[in-house]
Specification:
Chain lengths: 262, 317
């Protein structure tokens, strides 16, 4: 299927990433289409999280370029990329454990509702009304992810499944156009996994593009529009879930890597 | 929600307000208002430092230098140039802010404790400047004749008046800081403390916030320095040495850096220990500090401000 170039939101071109002598990504090329869910799968160490780190500006690639909505972003810092509309979650959940559920989402709103430091210190009326708006907005997001009744609980006290949802909610609060989700179902039981998968579909329905790294093949096959397979830093296949499931090279890589392929 | 209740602040304000009267009546504490002036001046520094350590997770070993910059800017401009003290105070704060940017920008762009290193060196350099620039600072002999403060003909010469002036500034800084902590900026700072990676993913410019807090702490220290200079009417370099920077860190550790109250409690405690209660130990005073610091770190990792939570925990179990 030929997709029109105008619908491309992210273009990754000739990315090479080497850590010392280790080649983590070797000449990687791919596009992400707007308002779709693209999954990246591959055995451990295939370079999936490295790729996320490059896209979200944790570190620049050794070579190559990343274009978001046509603009090169590979040299920008993480916070600048976040402001342009790329948000992410982390493989090992990185919540602000010293805050409540609501406050975590409010931090996500950081760049969308600004107020000056001095105005905050003097507690000027406009600061208070903005604060109120932020709470409302954060509560809407909590409602969307289904955690609104836990808004005043400490983020630390949530079970893993809800912590993962909260991390997604916090990412949504930044009002991203592209959400990079790093293993949202890892470590979750079946019902929690279902909740996460549903949420990701609803995020797509909001018009947000999703780039997904996930090991749970049931989730990947069910919700993805397109799948890319990485192995040892190289793309070995790309296509629809059906195409990927029937691709002999993919099956080989997974079986050869000793991983279960469900 | 991070709730800092207003009631304890109001109670604290009342206590501070009536204290000078109590000191006149209760025997044995007649000199306490004088100590409280120092405690207030130190509170100004520790409020900023606790924000820097507790929220931005950075250590400064150069706060004594910013304290000195405030004191010497006020001293030089009022004594040598005969200027009105109030604008000089403001100039001192601006100078401290600029210097903090110069020291902070390169070191806070990096991760890790580079600020501790940079401020350690900076503190030593400033101390040498105070000692060696004899024409400006009077060198080791110090600088005398710094005028007292007055505003629109109202003179703050008496101890009690100066006491209220200092504590006015402390409460202003305290409430301003609390408001900032409870705002968007404060959430960003707490976020940075919890996870730098996630903060950046939320679009927070981590190094900018760290620099802003460092500058704020420097400005408060400079204000404290000016108030110190106009209270003592005399300054010399030994007040602004490395040991004072370390003493400030001890205050924060005693009080606890997770809570802005820790800054107040620590400043009080160390002031009274060093001026009043530890005289008995004379030269061994430093050793006593060391022992107390060790005990606090082992048994009260969140400082004295963490005690209520520990006690609450006992009642719950």
């Amino acid at each position: 299927m030929e997709v029109q170039k105008t619908d491309t939101i992210l273009e990754v071109e000739d990315i090479i990433m080497s850590f010392g002598g280790l080649l983590a990504l070797a000449n990687l090329n791919f596009d992400v289409q707007k308002s779709r869910i693209k999954a990246i799968i591959g055995p451990n160490g295939a370079g999936k999280t490295t790729l996320f780190n490059i896209i979200t500006g944790v570190f620049p690639p050794t070579e190559g370029s990343v274009r978001f909505k046509g603009n090169a972003i590979e040299k920008l810092k993480a916070h600048e990329i976040a402001r342009r509309g790329i948000s992410r979650t982390f493989q090992t959940v990185e919540l602000f454990t010293n805050m409540t559920v609501l406050e975590n989402v409010m931090v996500g709103l950081h760049t969308r509702m600004r107020s000056s430091l001095i105005a905050s210190g003097l507690r000027l009326p406009q600061v208070l009304s903005k604060e109120e708006q932020m709470r409302e907005r954060a509560n809407e997001i909590l409602d969307f992810i289904g955690l609104v009744d836990k808004s005043e609980e400490s983020a630390d006290s949530l079970p893993l499944g809800e912590r993962k949802l909260l991390e997604i909610g916090r990412a949504l609060a930044t009002e991203p156009e592209l959400a990079c989700l790093d293993e949202p179902a890892a470590g979750l039981n079946e019902s929690e996994t279902q909740a996460a998968a549903d949420l990701i579909k609803r995020i797509k329905d909001r018009g947000i593009t999703v780039l997904l790294v996930e090991h749970d093949m049931k989730v990947v096959m069910n919700i993805s529009d397109e799948i890319m397979v990485l192995n040892y830093g190289e793309k070995i296949a790309e296509g629809s879930p059906e195409e990927i499931q029937n691709n002999p090279e993919v099956i080989e890589a997974y079986l050869g890597g000793g991983e279960d392929y469900a | 929600m991070l709730k800092i209740r207003m009631l304890p602040i109001a109670v604290f304000a009342v206590i501070i307000g009536v204290f000078p009267w109590a000191a006149r009546i209760v025997p044995g504490i007649g000199n306490y208002p004088d100590l409280m002036v120092f405690a207030g001046i130190y509170c100004l520094i520790t409020i900023g430092l606790s924000l820097l350590m507790g929220y931005a997770g950075q250590i400064s070993l150069g706060q004594a230098a910013f304290f000195g910059i405030g004191a010497y800017t006020s001293g030089i401009l009022t004594v040598t140039y005969g200027l009105n003290p109030w604008p000089c105070m403001l100039i001192g704060m601006i100078v401290a802010a600029l210097v903090a940017v110069l020291v902070g920008v390169p070191s806070l762009k990096l991760r890790g404790h580079y600020l501790a290193m940079a401020t350690l060196a900076f503190g030593i350099i400033v101390f040498i400047v105070f000692n060696e620039e004899v024409d400006w600072t009077g060198g080791p002999d110090g600088m005398s004749g710094i005028p007292g403060l007055s505003l629109f003909g109202f003179n703050f010469a008496s101890l009690e008046r100066y006491y209220y002036l200092v504590w006015f500034f402390v409460f202003a800084a305290f409430i301003f800081t609390i408001n900032v902590i409870q705002s968007r900026a404060g959430r960003a700072l707490r976020a940075i403390h919890a996870s730098q990676a996630a903060s950046m993913a939320m679009g927070i410019d981590v190094s900018r916030y760290k620099i802003a807090v460092f500058v704020y702490s420097a400005v408060l220290a400079s204000l404290a320095g000016s108030l110190y200079a106009h209270y003592m009417n005399f300054i010399n370099p030994s007040t602004f040495d490395l040991f004072f920077s370390i003493k400030l860190l001890i205050m924060i550790s005693f009080g606890g850096m997770r809570d802005i109250w820790g800054a107040i409690i620590g400043a009080f405690l160390v002031t009274f220990l060093s001026f009043e209660w530890l005289h008995f130990f004379e030269e061994a005073e430093v050793v006593v500090y060391g022992i107390i610091l060790l005990l606090v770190t082992i048994f009260l990792p969140h400082g004295l401000a963490g005690v209520p939570r520990i006690v609450k925990g006992w009642f719950r179990s």
